[in-house]
Amino acid sequence: MPGPGDVLDLIRERGALTRGEVLEHTGLSRMTVSSRIDALLEAGLLVEQGTDRVTGGRPSRRLEFNLAHGSVVTASVDTTHTTVAITDLAGRIRSERRVDVAVADGPVRTLDAVVDATRALVGSSNGLEGIAAIGISVPGPVDPDTGRPSQPPIMPGWDGYPIPEHLTDALGVPALVANDADAAALGEQRSAHPNSRSLCFIKVSSGIGTGIVLGGQVYRGTDGGAGDIGHVKIAGYDHLVCQCGAHGCLAAVASGRAVARALTDLGKPASSASDVGAYLADGDPDAARLTQQAGRVLGEVVATVVSLLNPAEVVLGGMLASAPLLTGVRETLYPRSLPRATRHLTVSLSTLSQRAATVGLAALVVDREYSPAAVNRALSS
User: What is the pLDDT of residues 192-238, one digit of tens each?
Assistant: First the structure.
């Protein structure tokens, strides 16, 4: 029989409901629904807000998920820095801090910096009372069963590292690990495209990766490698060596690192996607031209993604997300795709920008920590 967690899940999914509507949706007895709701109210997981007055009837209070029940710590690890934030259960950022630690510094130094930043934001060196969990995203594949990086091409020393155990031991709260593009994809879907049945988020920064959201849930593949399009081989570029060691990968041709290299060759020093992003923000014509060229190559691969998944949205994010990148992708995506595959497709830039992963991580944490099974288990103990 559905427990309190299932009632909470219904309200989280459908929004505020009256007791009568919960009764209607679940088919449970009035007494059972009442006991489930009372348990959730007592635990602080639900709140009753306002009234809906039906003509000739009694006003009904609406039940809502209590977004103030707890907080979430998120840590978005990028190649050159990490952003740590405290959010509410809706992913709204309360405070955040940038940590200048590079992923190449290795897992211990990076994660210790995350721990220090978390304690500084929370204001506690001991426990994290009221924190539901910490969610962390990394720029590489993550094994969904272990939460450990799985042969990440641009994360030296991270392969198989026990990230969840490291953070939980240090902070005393559960930890969730996700790929950065996966987290950003869910953030975009939940925030900007809540009705989308299929969304692909293409992150173009130092590397290139894709997050896929199908039916409101992240699709990770068999072992966390879904969407790793940065290592698709591109004909005619065998002379370019990728960070993974292979030749002719998409990331070696069209990533922020590749554009930075091309800018440097023109006498405009750039060593990272962040540098390219700075040039783009300043309106540099060479950066715009090279980014548009990168977008054209990227569009060739995205055309295959679109033909395979038939998404409603393709969202471009990362440090190279810009009008030139969007233009370049469109220039090759549409001609290389059948009209049938793109007739309902929108291709756009991220609305959340660098905060997409933060919002997505909060959603992943809440989906896990407030799942029907987790809530039923907590309220029965």
Answer: 999 999 999 999 999 999 999 999 999 999 999 999 999 999 999 99
17-18 sheet: strands from edge to edge = 17-18, 60-65, 46-52
Contact 96, 84 (CB under 8 A): yes
Which DSSP category does 90 fall into? T
**pTM strictly above 0.90:** yes
Instruction: Give all strands (DSSP E) within the chain, no chain letters.
Output: 17-18, 46-52, 60-65, 71-77, 82-87, 93-99, 131-138, 175-179, 198-204, 208-214, 217-218, 313-317, 346-349
CA distance 50 to 46: 13
Rounded CA separation 233/266 (Å): 26
Q: Which residue has the tokens 């399009």?
A: 229
194/91 Cα distance (integer angstroms): 14
Q: What is the pLDDT of residues 161-182, one digit of tens each?
A: 999 999 999 999 999 999 999 9
- Whole-angstrom distance, CA of residue 290 vs CA of residue 263: 8
Q: Are strands 71-77 and 82-87 parallel, antiparallel or unpaired?
A: antiparallel
Q: Are 107 and 161 in contact (CB under 8 A)?
A: yes
Percent of the chain with pLDDT over 90: 86
